[in-house]
Amino acid sequence: MIKILKHLGFVLLRSKGSHHFFINHESKRTTTVPVHDNEDLGIGLLKEILKDLDMSVEEYEELRRKIK
């Protein structure tokens, strides 16, 4: 998810504990990504982040395949 955010122009604003706060200065959008070792994000959390980005699951999957 962090690779995708950086690809979309988001930068790390700050981190507190295991939560990383990202901002895109152009779109003024923000989102928070919890980073717990190499654990995958749960589907509910993933959907909340995609909602913050105004991105569909299909758009996310397409972008994820491109970036890997």
Question: Key terms for this structure?
Answer:
alpha+beta; 26% strand; 68 residues; Metal Transport, Frataxin, Chain A
Overall mean pLDDT stands at 94
> What count of helical segments does DSSP give?
3
Q: Biggest sheet, in brief?
A: 3 strands, antiparallel
CATH-level-4 superfamily name:
Hypothetical protein
Explain this structure.
The chain has 68 residues and is α+β, with helices and mostly antiparallel strands. The chain has one domain: Hypothetical protein (Metal Transport, Frataxin, Chain A, 2-Layer Sandwich), CATH 3.30.920. It contains three helices and three strands; from the N terminus they run αβββαα. The chain has a three-stranded antiparallel β-sheet with strand order 1-2-3. Strand 2 and strand 3 form a beta hairpin. The termini are close together. The mean pLDDT is 94.
